[in-house]
């Protein structure tokens, strides 16, 4: 067994080198300059373009990018293949690939009026490439919404305390938005008052847990069950997910749809700012608790690894380490979803260009810290591999509660608190994803010229377009393949965001080196295409339809979900490979024949 503190130390050292060394180089490389007017100031409209203070925007950005993925991914990978492969991919890949990806996506959007990566690549390779990337992003968003809504529902079922606390903190966020933006009251006193109220909400959640139907067995005896004794087995997905989990899913999807339609000052900015204090406390507190508990021996049990370092190339679930380890860990190392956040909402709120280094590069390192905390919790608890997501998520709360005992915090408080930390990440990412999906569709359609296009771009109907297929995927109960499909799509999107940055740099200046973005892009294309192919042909087509191994009765929802997953995987591969070919041709043309006509600061355009 190895002390957990050594896992944390390895990550802190490599992340520090990345931030103080490599990110400084990248900031000079893309020529950040505070003399430039950011899109938030240039197009300020009170709705989408709203300049934000650095700590507020960092809180929003970090909360939006750090969903459940950097928790669930490392936990799942650690249990299947061992903690060493997971640690190495997080510690090395995050500063070199993930943080670079987030930073250049944000920087490119700054130089293109706060537009998305789809718009940016369209400036250089034409309308066809733009629409391909936007459709890819939109399909990925559907998977993001499905996965995050499912994970929130599972946590609410396992920890009803988190459901109550989440409702309270969402209400507080709306009040904070009115306090800051409508009443224009003092920032610091308001922050203190609302943060204190939020932690009071955690206490109230522990005292008054809330469930819709009968929750998980670990739920407190005083849990308030709204529909107690009313069955609920008729709910879609109830057999696979459990009645209470299945009941929460549509409510969470409805929340995401409604929250995404509100102006950013009403809920998104203040809620993300508030939740950032939960997240900093949870992640920072857990890291500090590991150090204190190790040095003073004050934790309730030794903080050592109870997982094996390595379970072999074919892990305990029968899955090959390459390429599935990488798309299983997903956001803990690199995430294409972050490029949508960086170029979709963050770039529209950045106060000055120099803020991009901390928010873009530093924000991703923060997600890596969350990933190592998640890996630490599962290494301590060492759950049975057969538990799936229903065990993985409670493991984070259980292991986190054990770690926090280093400060004398009882597990009865520490566990629910860590569950709320997880949910606060997830809720922010869910409605941010729906909002980004609307942006994608608006850019695909442009100016609506028919009733169908008007419906597709409407903020309410567009949310339904995303929520319905997400609900179909969730109700299948096929967690592992859905998670890895999400990971594969998400990381292939990261490869395409890096492709976009590479095309931008190539068109900007012949002297710009393309290794920093091009090498990670090529690596991620190989990994994700192979991973998505494995999921489509092996896990779904061969195992389910040919061998008939469904892990239970092959319900209509399960079969429909498997078909949707196959079609999605192959569609994403086709779009991704097609875009890589188009991008490569553009780069070869530009570097061989010179740049086109400049269209933005730090870029130029070329037609097909």
From TrEMBL:
Keywords annotated in UniProt: Cell membrane, Membrane, Transmembrane, Transmembrane helix
Localization per record: Cell membrane
One BP term from GO: cellular response to starvation
Record has Iron as a keyword: no
Domain CstA N-terminal: start-end pairs: 5-384, 393-529
Membrane topology: Multi-pass membrane protein
One GO cellular component term: plasma membrane
Pfam families according to UniProt: CstA
Main location: membrane
TM segment ranges: 6-22, 133-156, 162-181, 188-208, 247-268, 277-297, 317-337, 358-381, 401-428, 468-486, 492-508, 520-537, 557-582
Name the record gives this protein: Carbon starvation protein
Species name: Halogranum amylolyticum
């Amino acid at each position: 067994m190895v002390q957990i503190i050594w896992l944390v130390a390895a990550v802190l050292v490599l992340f520090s080198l990345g931030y103080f060394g490599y990110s400084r180089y990248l900031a000079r490389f893309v020529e950040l300059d505070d003399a430039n007017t950011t899109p938030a100031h240039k197009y300020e409209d009170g709705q989408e373009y709203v300049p934000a203070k650095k700590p507020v925007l960092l809180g929003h950005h970090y909360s939006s990018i750090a969903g459940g993925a950097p928790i669930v991914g490392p936990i799942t990978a650690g249990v299947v293949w061992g903690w060493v492969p997971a640690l190495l991919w997080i510690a090395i890949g995050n500063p070199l690939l993930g943080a670079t990806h987030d930073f250049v996506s944000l920087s490119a959007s700054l130089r293109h009026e706060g537009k998305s990566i789809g718009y940016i690549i369209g400036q250089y390779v034409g309308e066809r490439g733009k629409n391909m990337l936007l459709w890819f992003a939109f399909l990925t968003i559907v998977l993001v919404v499905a996965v995050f809504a499912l994970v929130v529902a599972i946590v609410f079922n396992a920890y009803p305390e988190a459901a109550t606390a989440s409702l309270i903190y969402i209400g507080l966020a709306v009040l904070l938005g009115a306090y800051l933006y409508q009443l224009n009251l003092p920032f610091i006193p308001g922050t203190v008052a609302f943060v204190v109220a939020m932690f009071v909400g955690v206490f109230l959640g522990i005292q008054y847990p809330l469930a819709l139907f009968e929750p998980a067995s670990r739920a407190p005896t005083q849990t308030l069950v709204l529909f107690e004794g009313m069955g609920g087995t008729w709910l879609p997905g109830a057999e696979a997910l459990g009645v209470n989990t299945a009941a929460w899913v549509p409510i969470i999807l409805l929340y995401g749809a409604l929250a995404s339609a509100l102006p950013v000052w009403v809920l998104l900015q203040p809620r993300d700012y508030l939740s950032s204090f939960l997240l900093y406390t949870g992640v920072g507190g857990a890291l500090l608790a590991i150090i204190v508990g190790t040095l003073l021996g004050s934790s309730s049990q030794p903080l050592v690894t109870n997982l094996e370092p390595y379970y072999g190339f074919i892990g305990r679930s029968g899955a090959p380490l390459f390429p599935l380890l990488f798309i299983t860990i997903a956001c803990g190392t690199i995430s294409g979803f972050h490029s949508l956040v960086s170029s979709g909402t963050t770039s529209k709120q950045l106060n000055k260009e120099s803020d991009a280094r901390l928010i873009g590069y530093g924000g991703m390192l923060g997600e890596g810290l969350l990933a190592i905390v998640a890996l630490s919790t599962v290494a301590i608890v060492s759950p049975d591999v057969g538990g799936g997501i229903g065990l993985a998520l409670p493991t984070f709360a259980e292991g986190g509660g054990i770690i926090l005992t280093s400060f004398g915090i009882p597990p009865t408080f520490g566990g629910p608190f860590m569950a709320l930390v997880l949910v606060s990440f997830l809720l922010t990412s869910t409605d941010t994803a729906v909002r980004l999906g609307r942006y994608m569709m608006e850019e695909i359609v442009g100016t609506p010229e028919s009733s169908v296009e008007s419906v597709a771009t409407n903020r309410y109907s567009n949310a339904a377009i995303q929520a319905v297929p997400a609900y179909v995927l969730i109700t299948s109960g096929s967690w592992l393949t859905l998670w890895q499909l999400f990971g594969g799509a998400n990381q292939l999107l990261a490869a395409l965001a890096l492709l976009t940055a590479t095309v931008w740099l190539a068109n900007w200046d012949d002297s710009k080196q393309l290794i920093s973005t091009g090498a990670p892009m090529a690596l991620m294309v190989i990994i994700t295409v192979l991973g998505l192919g494995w999921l489509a042909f092996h896990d779904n087509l061969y195992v389910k339809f040919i061998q008939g191994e469904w892990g239970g009765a092959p319900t209509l929802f399960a079969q429909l979900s498997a078909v949707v997953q196959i079609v999605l995987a192959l569609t994403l591969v086709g779009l991704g490979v097609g875009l890589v070919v188009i991008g490569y041709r553009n780069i070869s043309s530009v570097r061989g024949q010179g740049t086109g006509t400049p269209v933005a600061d730090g870029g130029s355009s070329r037609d097909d």
